[in-house]
Amino acid sequence: QYVATCNQWLAKDEGDRKISRDLTLHKQQTTTQKSNYYKVTVYTGNKSGAGTNSDVSLTLYGNLGEAGPMKLANQEDNFEPGKKDEFTIECQNVGELNQIFIAHNNKGLSAAWFLDSIVIEDLYAMHTYQFPCHRWLAKNEDDGKIARFLVPQSSTTETPQIRKHNQYKVTVFTGNKSGAGTDADVFITLFGNQGQTGQIKLDNEKDNFETGQKDEFIVECPAVGEINKILIEHNNKGLSSGWFLDRILIEDTQGHRTYEFPCNRWLAKDEDDKQIARYLVPRPKVKNNQYKVTVFTGNKSGAGTDADVFITLFGNQGQTGQIKLDNEKDN
Asked: Where, by residue number, does the polypeptide cross the bilayer (predicted)?
């Protein structure tokens, strides 16, 4: 028997206002708590400007699964410089903690945050984990990241296996239909044979997801192994929220494999089936091939071009996608 714990609202007027959730299945054991309480103590550093007004969220990862992201908030002035903030959270039991993901949304007048450390007490197992950080989560400090994976410093039990981190290059192709672009926030979740990433916002501070546009994002997260599906969604906000998604390419930079996820549908409340979230599965893997392409430019006056030239090959097993024709000569 398998159990998928939710313990959250599916409502537009409750919690985080989401009406869809991804749940992780775990084999039910009579000796395992279905839910658990954790005491989370967050220590903000003493540096100048160390405090943040942003919303802070936490995701727990353990040998029984993961829980989150969960917003950490119990008063208006959390995360002030040199301050200790304590939270008690109820969520599914993730077992022995092996890492956490701490992040903020970079909003507010003072968004930058210097996090000293986090201490998490498993109130069921009576075990305490310490997660040192000693770094900025800030767009204008350190490495510019506003989210970090942290691993426990020490444990009184055997150290659990830690999921390796990975870097994925996500390329999103918005369709060419009229009004295909979106102003909404777009999120992706990767699912693989070694787990899932949780919801990740696709944002590189550019004007993304415009009609006919290609947008690229570098995503750092726990490795999920061989990707078997993704969830792509948006929050339906903005003046033009409807989105026609052509396809998504995901390159596993460590596994040296690229996955293509065709969509060719609307994610819109007023188009198609009115869904703003879709699960996509990868196109079956096709062996790479080499093609010799010879291009003959005409002899007419002014027939040559200085523009970039692209080609796409179509066959009974799929298509190549757009390929730039460039051999560093004067073509």
From this structure: none
Q: Which amino acid is at 182?
A: T
Quote the radius of gyration of the chain (alpha carbons, Å). Answer: 23
Tokens of 154: 């020490």
pLDDT of residue 109: 86
Among the ranges given (15-29, 52-66, 116-130, 296-310), the one the predictor scored with the smallest mean pLDDT = 15-29
Backbone torsion region of residue 117, taken as left when φ is above 0, otherwise alpha when ψ lies between -120 and 50, otherwise beta: beta
**Which pLDDT band, with edges at 50, 70 and 90, does 216 fall under?**
very high
DSSP, residue by residue, 50-91: ----S-EEEEEEETTEEEEEEEE-SSTT-S-TT-EEEEEEEE
CA 135 to chain centre: 21
Number of Cβ within a 10 Å radius of residue 41? 15
Whether the CB-CB separation of 137 and 143 falls below 8 Å is answered with no
Q: Which pLDDT value is given to residue 191?
A: 87
- 155 pLDDT more than 60: no
Cα separation, 250 vs 248, whole angstroms: 7
Location of each CATH 2.60.60.20 domain in the chain: 2-162, 166-280
- At the top level of CATH, the class of 2-162 is mainly beta
Distance from C-alpha of 323 to C-alpha of 307, rounded to nearest angstrom? 14
Topology classification of domain 166-280: Lipoxygenase-1 (2.60.60)
pLDDT top residue among 114 and 200: 114
